[in-house]
């Protein structure tokens, strides 16, 4: 399930604290529960595809690109001096003229979101 408010989620993600546990696992704070955290795992596949999982209710109900996943991906990008933007369509992402990735969600390419990466 693709979010309709991707820019709001991206904005929310900038206020989340991310802690890296190991190469692929992150602990991201929860906005709905100040004493809670969510676990995010990130894996990079072929053809610039990113696979991510989160323990939040949105992700558990087959949602892709929750604010926790976005925060973890932005954390990783920041380590390389990069900034990310998230887009609902490939056309929107291609218009940015930056390197493009696909955050997979579900079985077909209509369920995920597109990511552009630029120098920060």
Give the topology.
Elements: H1 6-13, E1 18-20, E2 25-29, E3 37-44, E4 49-54, H2 57-60, H3 67-79, E5 82-87, H4 90-94, E6 99-103, E7 113-119
Parallel strand pairs: 4-6
Antiparallel strand pairs: 1-2, 2-3, 3-4, 5-7, 6-7
Helix pairs in contact: 1-3
Characterize the structure shown:
By secondary structure, the chain is an alpha+beta fold. It has one domain. The chain has four helices and seven strands, in the order H-E-E-E-E-H-H-E-H-E-E. The chain has a seven-stranded mixed beta sheet. Helix 1 packs across helix 3. It is globular and about 40 Å long. The mean pLDDT is 93.
Short description, anyone?
The model has no long low-confidence stretch (mean pLDDT 93).
Task: Output the keywords.
120 residues; alpha+beta; seven-stranded mixed β-sheet; globular
Q: What is the strand arrangement across the widest sheet?
A: 1-2-3-4-6-7-5
Number of H- or I-type helical stretches: 4
Provide the structure class.
Answer: alpha+beta
Distance between the termini: 29 Å
Q: Tell the overall outline.
A: globular
- The stretches of 5 or more residues where confidence is low (pLDDT under 50) are none
């Amino acid at each position: 399930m693709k979010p309709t408010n991707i820019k709001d989620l991206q904005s929310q993600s900038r206020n989340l604290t991310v802690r890296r546990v190991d190469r692929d696992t992150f602990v991201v704070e929860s906005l709905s529960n100040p004493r809670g955290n969510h676990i995010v795992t990130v894996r990079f596949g072929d053809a610039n595809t990113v696979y991510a999982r989160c323990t939040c209710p949105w992700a558990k109900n087959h949602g892709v690109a929750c604010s926790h996943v976005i925060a973890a991906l932005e954390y990783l990008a920041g380590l390389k001096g990069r900034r990310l933007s998230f887009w609902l369509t490939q056309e929107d992402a291609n218009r940015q003229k930056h390197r493009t990735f696909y955050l997979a969600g579900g079985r077909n390419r209509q369920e995920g979101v597109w990511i552009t990466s630029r120098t920060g």
